[in-house]
Amino acid sequence: MNTSQPQDKSNGYEAIAEDFLRARNLRIGPSTVRAWSRSLAPGAAVLDLGCGFGAISQVLLEDGFTVYGVDASQSMIRAFKERFPEAPADCAAVEDSVFFHRTFDAIVAWGLIFLLSPDTQQLLIRKAAKALQPGGRFLFTAPREAVTWKDGMTGLESISLGAPQYDELLQAEGLIVTGQDVDEGDNYYYFASRL
User: Fold this and answer.
1) CATH code for position 126
2) Residue 88 exposure: Cα atoms within 13 Å on the Cβ side
3) pLDDT tens across 23-69, in order?
4) Which domain holds residue 189?
5) 90, 69 in Cβ contact below 8 A?
6) What is the value of pTM for the model shown?
């Protein structure tokens, strides 16, 4: 008989969802995402991986994009659905989302990749590459350096593979690295496009 607890697919964020909703600084991130999204076609379909309650999705929706949100935290996805009832939403581990059965013009993973194990990060990059339309754009955040640390909210381990490894993974999946950026909160951005 297996008495172990099921793995928390929200990487600890379901347990601290209320604290996260109160603490999330809405001024950090949206301006960089908005600038990146200006090159997308009007009404483009964008998948927001680890959407939380929708801080990044809000910017995309305000600019007229069709946003799909996925998050493993039931509390976060419930808040997302309350804020954006017309936006399709999936409560699942991002790598298991039903949304990967379709294609998108762009995919965003803000504040997510480094919460995942290295194998799951690689799997997610592979799935994102396959889910992008030709010319589709991918944005994610993770420290530039290869580093491991404890997440400030959950206390769980976070892992950045570092820019050289991310560049290699993106290129292996047919994505071209198109740039990097750093926002006002020192979040490091990776930008890539599908060939």
Assistant:
1) 3.40.50.150
2) 13
3) 544 566 788 999 999 999 999 999 999 999 999 999 999 999 999 99
4) 17-194
5) yes
6) 0.87
